[in-house]
Amino acid sequence: MLSSTSKTEQLHIAIVGKRNTGKTSLINALTREDFSIADEVPGTTIDPVKKSTEFLPYGQVVLIDTVGIDHVEVPGEKRITQIIKTISYADFAVVVVDACCKMSAEEIDLLQYLEKISVPFLVAVNKIEFGVNTDLLSQIRSLGAVHFEVSCKEKVGLETLKKKLIRSLPVQNEKPIISNLVGQGDVVVLAIPIENNVPKGKLVLPQIQIIRDALDEDTIVVIVKDKEIKSAIANLKLLPDLVVTDSQAVTKVLADIPEEVPLTTFSILMARLKGDLPFYIKGLQRVEELNNGDKVLISEACSNHPQQDDIVSVKIPGWLKKHTGKDLKIVRIQGQDFPENLSEFSLLVHCSGCMITRKQMLVRTNQAKLVDIPVVNYGVLISYMNGAIPRALLPFKEAVYEWERNHHN
Question: What is the mean pLDDT of residues 54-60?
């Protein structure tokens, strides 16, 4: 069975652990080929190495052989190290430990990091041919982890581990943009501002995606300019089931629609589609905690050429400084990689990720989580500073819950 899915979209399994626990040997055993030559010298694997393989009946996956967590670079350094990049990219992890030794602080931290970024994992207790440390098993049980005892050298327990691994792999279903909010016969009004930086005759990608997703559900889509929303609703026989608008137009649209009409923004829909909307809502709390001199990173995944009065380099920095009343140090970056010193920033403001995959967006979100940096996306932040939150969150129960949990006062 062959798959045309790109390596970017294939499920990634990180094989992680300390040096010389048998990570490379485990990959060789799982793939039944010498993907890499295992060396008894600790620290042989310096950089992560990827291997695409077929896991029947699941399909193609990418196995990642990683540098040891007891190498110079460790997650505890709170920097975007190679280890953090690797585990934040993973959809699943197998943590390999030495059967003869108790778990080290680095290994315990690793399990906690995986829990923190919601990466499911199994623990492979390797080298059982030399005996199994009962204290190690007690530690694993106390951490609530599922473990399997194996010997890569003697080929013991590997089929059981592989079968459980395949059963545990997450199912990758395409998330809906709007189709789980509306249905057949419902009316959605898209209030779209005509922006100077959008070429004549064009719509931006999120608008096109939302229109198609709604049409696929046999939903009635009404498209108007934001300044025409009031008259459009007045001409409908019934109130619309949902209004979607641009973050920068949300204040005007709110004033022009009845209070009982559900409303959200294109950017909030994209945040839910591509990333972790509740986590971005939680990040709003940090906005109110910013102090003079705090560093804020504004990150754009694609490389758009800055326009006059650009939202990234001009508008968001201006609005953020005005809202907080603080003298903030704002840094803007474009492209795929975060700076290694991400932990020096008090807040990460990220684009909606419309030009990258959901996996790539979650990788970036997970890297911020691993160094304890709150994240908000452009649209969530703009809607918040314009007073449209929590109103624009009401269609999303999980986002409303996070808002109430963090802003109950």
Answer: 77
